[in-house]
Design brief:
The protein is an alpha+beta fold. 49% of the residues lie in helices and 18% in strands. It has 27 helices and 29 strands. A hairpin with a 2-residue loop joins strand 1 and strand 2.
Length: 789
């Protein structure tokens, strides 16, 4: 008899037999690689892996030196730039890991990685075969991380987004195989049993019925062993984690019914219920397939975006045009985008004009005209014109790729109501198991022949599948709907928070206004020409990215500026020919503002002398008035850093009663905190750098796609098309989502409370319980999909 390798399960060649101690026993291994992996697992105190694993691991690599040489390739700068997100010394990467077979594999990888110096965070997604690793790049190299994963028998490589669709199709294909087999066998078994039940074939003798039972058993077995396999795996993982998930009663019902059917067939006595078994598995797979499809639709916007990532680009090098990989483009390179081509990277148009379709980014299907100096985003389709684009961000750091990552994060966060439902379903499963056992004992006294089937009916009918689907199915569909409308959610529980909001803070500049300032007046008390002050201001503002700086871009900038500094929410400063100039709000000046300049909102100061004041005005967004009218039931507050006359004017024009002017970032933050201290649930809408702290502090925050990077990183929701009217859409869909979740939970609980007494009293046969449970889940999924409209 050939021995099997304790690590990988392969047969051991008698001439190459290796040994080491594992779990207190001498174990045999097929090669030096597997033996070394086992040694590494034991020496790191992780041999519990061998207790908990449900499958053998992959065969380990035998030539460690050769492997290390290969892995060193991943330390190359070009590889790191493509796959690793870095910020100072902190790096993060998504890895695809092959060889993961069960939850124990994920546990082993996390424990092993945590032992490495420099590892900051590790998360393994067993079902997706992926791991997220954050580490200190000064203490650890990527090749060392990959090497440590290899040492315990797994193979890791950087995750590539383009594999998303391929992976889904493979999983979907395997699911459809199980579903198809269950459906085919259900039809055959049902046909046989209907003939027996209703005597369709005329009088059937006992021998023929027994023959039909054996055929039904033969047809049911692959359904139980193959189609229902994922239920067993899920239940086992739940039990190992010391929890009762919803698959536990399913597995018990399947096992009890199948085993009793086998005995009944073998002994030619009693009922078999093979048709109910097949129908149960088939309908359960149908409901889960619908749930998976709903989740896929929710993730489809993200997946589709990955498909829009361009693969090639036309690089301009002098007079030479070269076709290159889009992912190889670097900042400041020039690319040519012809009509009908996708924009390969984020950039600025340096020559030409065109009309771009950005529907897959913003949900807006109207073509957008773009001119020299305008920004274009990767994945946009150039419908008309030829553009020369200067690269401002690599493909990895493009808006398109970042949106995809944020959507993935949003789908992984659970709202509070979902967590409560999960915990409730665990307790509910425990109660169901207890009631089913009590029912069996009681019916043993009443009618022993029915005791087993009553217990099975209770297990099946009250399975909390519908309760488990209630929240995630509704949330997935709501997020999908918002994504299609150009609204990006960075966390899924933001929708739940939106429905609780009663206090709203709105920024003015760039939010209620378009953020495109124009200089309407210069108050100059001196005899110096206004043009001299405009030149000084324009020279300083050329180094700023604030919207106010754009108002000075048309003026001459003849001066060289040194020691440039920017103070958030106040202004900028710099030295010209040794003189320190300050340009900004009144709070930024060292001198009291005279009455003659009280109407101005930007001031220019030289050392300790106030030179002049500028009045900058901004145009209101066209949807602002309609939005404020919609928000009247809420406590709406306009909070701005601008001067009081301008803020008051905007508030009056929009009908906002509560407003605060000349607010610094600290003032805004304090205002939000005070509202929260009064038990208000706060929504903040802002777009500027100075709004970053308040966007983070608010219970839920929204920014515009044109907002600053800091605002977009701080906010929970991003309006990609900058349309304020989308706030009404968010409130509407959030309210509908909450209603659907309540309806789903009410239906799931109500159905179980109604069906449980019927099952306990023996009024439901197993096939009726199967039909009721499946229909309950289907109703929940169908109700949730209405949120897609």
């Amino acid at each position: 008899m050939l021995l099997k390798c304790f690590h990988c399960g392969l047969h051991i060649d008698p001439h190459h037999n290796y040994h080491t101690d594992v779990l207190g026993k001498r174990q045999s291994f097929c090669c030096l690689g597997c033996c070394a992996v086992a040694d590494a697992i034991v020496s790191n105190g992780l041999e519990d892996y061998y207790h908990y694993r449900s499958e053998f691991a992959e065969k380990a690599s035998e030539n460690e030196n050769e492997l290390l040489q290969k892995l060193k390739l991943f330390d190359d700068d070009s590889i790191l730039q493509e796959f690793v997100e870095s910020q100072e010394d902190v790096s993060e990467i998504q890895l695809t890991i092959s060889g993961i077979n069960c939850a124990a594999c994920g546990w082993l990888i996390e424990k092993q990685m945590a032992k490495l110096n420099g590892i900051m965070k590790v998360g393994v997604n067993v079902s997706a075969r992926r791991a997220s690793v954050t580490w200190n790049s000064q203490q650890l190299k990527l090749s060392q991380i990959l090497s440590h994963i290899e040492k315990i028998g797994y193979h890791a490589k950087p995750f590539q987004p383009e594999q998303h669709e391929i992976t889904f199709r493979q999983e979907n294909k395997a699911f459809l195989k199980r579903l198809g087999l269950a459906g085919l066998m259900t039809m055959q078994v049902m046909m046989l049993n209907i003939g027996v039940f209703f005597d369709i074939f005329g009088h059937i003798d006992l021998q023929t019925k027994q023959y039909f039972n054996w055929i039904s058993l033969l047809l049911t077995t692959p359904v139980i062993l193959y189609s229902a396999s994922e239920f067993y795996t899920s239940a086992i993982r739940g039990l190992r984690a010391h929890t009762f998930n919803m698959d536990v009663p399913i597995v018990l019902a399947l096992g009890i019914t199948y085993i009793s059917g086998v005995f009944a067939t073998a002994q030619n006595t009693g009922q078999t219920y093979f048709e109910s078994l097949c129908m149960f598995v088939f309908l359960l797979l149908v409901s889960r397939y619908l749930e998976q499809s709903a989740r896929y639709k929710a993730a489809q916007a993200s997946a589709n975006m990955l498909e829009y990532l361009p693969t090639t680009a036309t690089l301009i090098e002098g007079e030479i045009l070269t076709s290159v990989l889009a992912k190889s483009l670097k900042v400041n390179q020039l690319v040519l985008v012809k009509a009908g081509e996708l924009v390969p990277v984020d950039g600025i148009i340096t020559q030409g004009q065109g009309q771009l379709d950005q529907a897959m980014l913003t949900g807006e299907f109207n073509l957008i005209s773009k001119y020299t100096g305008d920004q274009v985003l990767a994945g946009s389709l150039n419908q008309l014109g030829t553009l020369t684009v200067k690269v401002t961000a690599s493909l990895q750091h493009s808006t398109l790729n970042q949106i995809s990552k944020l959507q993935t994060q949003a789908m992984s966060t659970k709202p509070r109501i979902a967590s409560l439902a999960d915990r409730f379903s665990q307790y509910f499963v425990g109660v169901v198991l207890l009631i089913s056992c009590i029912s069996y004992i009681v019916w043993q006294q009443i009618d022993p022949s029915q005791a087993l089937w009553v217990m099975v009916a209770v297990l099946i009918a009250t399975c909390p599948c519908a309760l488990g689907l209630a929240t995630p199915s509704a949330l997935s569909c709501a997020i999908a709907n918002l994504n299609s409308k150009g609204v990006l959610l960075k966390r899924g529980d933001a929708l739940e928070q939106i429905t609780l909001v009663d206090w709203i803070a709105l920024d003015k500049t760039g939010t209620l206004t378009e953020g495109q300032f124009t200089i309407t007046q210069c108050v100059n008390p001196s005899e110096q020409p206004d043009s001299d002050y405009f030149k000084i201001a324009a020279s300083i503002e050329q180094y700023s990215s604030h919207p106010i700086a754009q108002a000075f871009r048309h003026y001459e900038r003849p001066f060289t500026v040194s020691d440039f500094q920017s103070e958030m929410g106040k202004g900028v400063s710099g030295k010209i020919e040794g003189i320190l100039y300050k340009l900004g709000a009144a709070t930024f000046m060292n001198i009291q503002i005279p009455k003659s300049m009280s109407a101005c909102n930007v001031f220019l100061q030289s050392n300790n002398e106030l030179l002049c004041g500028f009045l900058l005005t901004d145009k209101l967004r066209p949807q602002g008035a309609a939005l404020i009218n919609y928000l009247k039931p809420y406590n709406v507050n306009l909070i701005s850093g601008d001067i009081a006359p301008i803020v008051k004017s905007v508030a009056a024009e929009l009908g906002i009663n509560n407003w605060l002017a000349e607010q610094s970032p600290q003032d805004k933050l304090q205002t939000i905190k005070e509202a929260q201290n009064k038990k208000h649930v706060v929504l903040m809408v802002g777009d500027g750098i100075n709004d970053g702290p308040v966007l983070t502090q608010a219970d839920v925050s929204i920014t515009l796609g044109a907002g600053s990077d800091l605002a977009k990183s701080s906010a929970d929701i991003v309006l990609l098309d900058n349309e304020l009217a989308k706030l009404q859409t968010i409130f509407s869909i959030a309210a509908r989502c909450k209603t659907k979740i309540k309806q789903n939970i009410a239906w799931a609980i109500g159905y179980n409370l109604l069906i449980l007494p019927l099952a306990v009293m023996g009024l439901l046969s197993p096939w009726m319980a199967v039909l009721g449970m499946s229909l309950s889940s289907l109703i929940v999924v169908v109700n949730s999909t209405r949120l897609l409209k």
